[in-house]
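Task: encode each sequence below as structure tokens.

Item 1
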Amino acid sequence: MLIKEYRICMPITVEEYKIGQLYMIAKHSHEQSVKGEGVEVVENRPHEDPEHGSGQFTEKRIYIASKLPSWLKSMVPKIFYVTEKAWNYYPFTVTEYSCSFIPRFSVNILTKYENNNGSTENCLNSSSETLDHRIVDYVDIATDPCAAHHFKESEDVSKFCSSKTKRGPLEKGWRESADPIMCSYKLVDVRFDMMYLMQGKIEEFVHRSIREILLVGHRQAFAWIDEWFGMNLQDVRDYEAKMQEETNEKVRQKGSEPSTPQPLEEEAGGATPNFVTPNSTPSNTPTSPTGGQKKGWFSWN
């Protein structure tokens, strides 16, 4: 088990990011999906929770076989997918990842957004045991380098200036003086309870992948601000629906049909300590993390 808390700041407010996040996820998923691979949206619907109120439940299948390193490709079927289930009660979200052919592999992500520069020491109300084991990692969208194949000049926020908001470019140390500023707090637990000799290597690989995705996604959320700033919730939901339809069509083209068994309901989420997370169906939704027991791939949520 490897637990890290990622803190990613952006020069926007939590209220603005409610729109920006939905826009970024939809556009990024569409860009990254190609014939036979990418993100397929299985379900996206409103959901009610007795504690958190109105929210959104989504289920996705992420086809990524070609993106795996060679040492990991040898361990998996030629075509497979990761299942993502997310319960979004903005500004709090629970996301689970499971894999159809590795029932004891799981990732759990608890997310909360606050209007600060990452200064809240226990934003997610983690238990003392979790606090003892977690590694805090500040991800800087301006100065941390992303992988070469992800880099785009137009998304370099150290040079980008928004024409609508006049925010940016972001210089070294920007988190100390930016106004507005918000932080995404993401507590990520990765567990791979098989093949002991490979456990550490796989958990580290997943965390590196998560960090890269968080870096790129949050850079894009700000770099695309002029595209989504001024949208209301209905505007971005309409855009989201359009992008999801086009993205699903890409993924469902020849080559996308999974050759592995469908994920079993009891596989979703795994079994990782120190989190309170949802059960495997949206009828049993999450409660706030209290440091009890529970569960745990990557998410934009």
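Item 2
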Amino acid sequence: LAAIVMAAQLVASATAGKTTYVVGGWLPQDSASISRTLAPIFQDYLSDRVGSKMDPPVKFVFKPVDQDSDTSSRSLIESGGLDMLYSVAGSVACKAAQFSWVPLATQQNILGSSVTGSDALVVFSLLNNSAITRVEDLKGGKLGCGYLYSGATYYEGFQMLLDHGVHMYRDLAQVRFYGADYDAYFRAVLRGDLDAGFVSASWLSRNDYDEEGLLR
């Protein structure tokens, strides 16, 4: 949070006379969930605890972005409708490379007692599916992912498959993208409609979809 506050102070002091800054945010969730998660930090906290101490006072307004073409962070930044962007590691890396954007600050993620550079990937499949016992067995199978270009539910899994000799688009029979609807592809694996899925460790730690021990 300290790094985020410093970034807010940096940006707020960069444009003399400007008193309202729009902070865009993206997470692998729907717009309402993104606002519930991030607005208390990037709107309420920054306005109350950081902006109020500036002269003149600065207000921060939060806006969910990258949900559709109308909320594209790139378009909003280029048009002046967005001043800053918060996103997950995979998305930040992609945008930085694609648009030559420079991150102002980074955030540490703590999983258990360890610091990780991004949210950890979890690969899951049915325990009684004897055809899938190793990563290499996913060849010819059906896979569920989150958002295209997300960290834990796409990039990390894509690389993990390559490390085991499996190309996501050449070697799998089907890849389905579910966005933030992790629930849908968890249940698809449980029904046998998918052979495996990628999910983030942080989401899995907050939700229990395997009370009967059916997944590996």
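Check on item 2: The first strand starts at residue 20 and ends at 25. The longest helix spans residues 31-50.
End of task.
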